[in-house]
């Protein structure tokens, strides 16, 4: 998608501090971090939201969650705990319409966030 910021990050035309990249998934630091560790994990394939995910995407979702587990270990979050967030749709707080997961940790995370 030509106007998608995350697609631009994947292709390298928009700068980001990438921490992981393979043929299916890219992860990078959120520029508006809400915790000491705040990474965004996205599929390289443009999927607008979780609403467009189907059974055919099961391998991709498995890879995304596997990468998040690996990143949690790499970032020192696995033992202490962390949060994974996906916002879906405008009222769900989704501001970039390319499915993405927030991996947050490094401090005690309260609910509701604030």
Automatic annotation (TrEMBL):
<dbReference type="InterPro" id="IPR001310">
    <property type="entry name" value="Histidine_triad_HIT"/>
</dbReference>
<feature type="domain" description="HIT">
    <location>
        <begin position="5"/>
        <end position="114"/>
    </location>
</feature>
<protein>
    <submittedName>
        <fullName>Histidine triad (HIT) family protein</fullName>
    </submittedName>
</protein>
<dbReference type="InterPro" id="IPR036265">
    <property type="entry name" value="HIT-like_sf"/>
</dbReference>
<feature type="active site" description="Tele-AMP-histidine intermediate">
    <location>
        <position position="100"/>
    </location>
</feature>
<dbReference type="Pfam" id="PF01230">
    <property type="entry name" value="HIT"/>
</dbReference>
<feature type="short sequence motif" description="Histidine triad motif">
    <location>
        <begin position="98"/>
        <end position="102"/>
    </location>
</feature>
<dbReference type="InterPro" id="IPR011146">
    <property type="entry name" value="HIT-like"/>
</dbReference>
<dbReference type="InterPro" id="IPR019808">
    <property type="entry name" value="Histidine_triad_CS"/>
</dbReference>
<dbReference type="GO" id="GO:0003824">
    <property type="term" value="F:catalytic activity"/>
</dbReference>
